[in-house]
Amino acid sequence: MAITTASAKAKGRNLQKSVVSSLLERHPTLTADDVVSCPMGSNGADIKLSQAAKAAIPFDFECKARAKIAMVYEALDQARRSPDRIPLAVIKADRKRPLAVIDLETFLSLISDRA
User: Fold this and answer.
1) What secondary structure does DSSP assign to 51-84, as a single string?
2) Under 8 Å CB-to-CB from 42, ≥6 apart: which residues?
3) Taking a C-beta distance cutoff of 8 angstroms, is the pair 19, 103 a contact?
């Protein structure tokens, strides 16, 4: 069964809101005005960062909530070998640069303001 456009946009919007919430939770000096989920269809990154947020978080975020990326999760699961190591998957499409993929919670803990 195909997903409707409205459902697909809702999935993406929910993911964006979750990332915004997680970033604000881990950077207590930032406010809701510093980290904002952009409307669907906007140009640029999905999460808008203020200058203060950009100073604390040196990343631009594009959020994709799609079923077709399941193989990325399989690759990350294969990288989980040891509890004292951070699993990372390297993926690459034809004629594209390789990407490094880690779990969002792990990534957020690495860039967190909290000690």
Assistant:
1) HHHHHH----------GGGHHHHHHHHHH---TT
2) none
3) no
